[in-house]
Amino acid sequence: MAHHKSALKRHRQSLKARERNRIVKTRVKNAVKAVRLAIEANDADATALALQNATSILDKAASKKVLHWRTAARKISRLSMAANKI
Predict the structure, then answer these.
(1) Cα→Cα distances 41→8, 56, 61, 63, 64, Å
(2) Where exactly are the structural domains of the chain?
(3) At what angle do helices 5-40 and 44-63 cross, to 10 degrees?
(4) What letter would DSSP give residue 4?
(5) Full-prediction pTM beyond 0.85?
(6) Which of 27, 48, 66, 86 could form a disulfide with 61 if both were Cys (CB 3.0 to 4.6 A apart)?
(7) 85 CB-near residues (< 8 Å, 6+ apart)
(8) pLDDT tens-digit profile of 7-61?
(9) Distance (Å, rounded) from C-alpha 38 to C-alpha 41?
(10) Can you tell me the distance from the alpha carbon of 64 to that of 22, in angstroms, rounded to the nearest whole number?
(11) Per-residue DSSP letter, 85
């Protein structure tokens, strides 16, 4: 464990950031899963709504640097292509 005041503060900050990142990543996974389930159900309306929600969540995660922006773009692209096949 750290002993210096600045190192203790940095450790506290890293724990907070880790918790925030875990929450955002879980939201991303759940949003992507919702789109995939809607695609499997062949429900165009639900797919469009879920895709819009997932796109927003992925963009937000990328803007907060939780996900790399290219990773988010790739996921959005692949979900969109799958949704357009319906």
Answers:
(1) 50, 22, 27, 31, 32
(2) 30-86
(3) 160
(4) S
(5) yes
(6) 66
(7) 39
(8) 999 999 999 999 999 999 999 999 999 999 999 999 999 999 999 999 999 999 9
(9) 5
(10) 13
(11) T
Whose tokens are 């062949």? That residue is 42
Report which residue type is found at 4: H
- Return d(Cα 75, Cα 63) in angstroms, integer: 15
Query: Is the CB of residue 79 less than 8 Å from the CB of residue 54?
Result: yes
Lookup: tokens for 53: 């929600």
Q: Which two tokens stand for residue 73?
A: 């773009």
Identity at 17, one-letter amino acid code: A
Look up residue 15 and give its amino acid.
Answer: L
